[in-house]
């Protein structure tokens, strides 16, 4: 028989580390409480992903007999661990009920896969969050999904940096950091009131948006991977109720909005038409011509030089199937990029 479960809740966690308490008054969690917590974590783990007893021992840092007693206790509570079909050594616990219907499950699944693709490789916070969300998915796709969440080779974002951004955002505290823009000197001592975190649709990278109060005194967008030496200050701030992320990003092709967006007109050849008409492009309108070509208008944020920096890689990616018609300065820049590529690589 397993050890009895605790009948009383443990002391509040803040009591365990209260610096004002004497050593004699500090409450420490009992063995019974440790086991109860391990049982809850074990149940959550096996509802999320099938594992062998050896993997469970390594996960919880206990021996195989302890894991077997815990599994027996969970079984007595109505959560029997079963051999996973196709892999008898792996155990799983069927999750009771389902929070989502089929279309909702697909939407949640898609969100998790997108989070996986943009997440820092191996980051424990992303992995844990994805596993927790996946628990509400139907069993038929939950395990396949979790098996696919492996190191994706994405660029590393240090966990401590991610934690500091999250803390500053959730607690409404000022975030101080240095920033390394592309091909420019480091901006030192930025102080940001974090308003919003956005994932770019173009590169799936996380960006931090907020009021940068020390340098320019305006709402700015910072790429998380370029932020250095982050420090969460004690000073808090009041979020701006007038800040509307939808409005701020309304003209962004990715994450960079603009006070003076521009409209870029592009002609696409007939062999590119079917891909365009499949949709999924923001701030765009299309008109099909009799010959099958398409005239498109894209509204996009522009930088201080008047160029839609986030839109240009998309247009250049179409190669000879796209011709930028207007405005003139965007067409000239687009032609210049093509001519430079030809000059460098045409042999």
TrEMBL record:
Which intervals carry biased composition (Pro residues)? 1-11
GO MF: DNA binding
Task: Specify the WCX domain's residue ranges.
Answer: 261-342
Domain WYL, chain residue ranges per copy: 162-232
DNA-binding found in the keyword field: yes
**Which intervals of the chain are annotated as region Disordered?**
1-29
UniProt keywords (A-Z) are: DNA-binding
**Coiled coil (UniProt feature):** none
- PANTHER family cross-referenced by the UniProt entry: PROTEIN PAFC, PTHR34580
Write the protein's name.
DNA-binding transcriptional regulator
Q: What organism is recorded for this protein?
A: Deinococcus aetherius
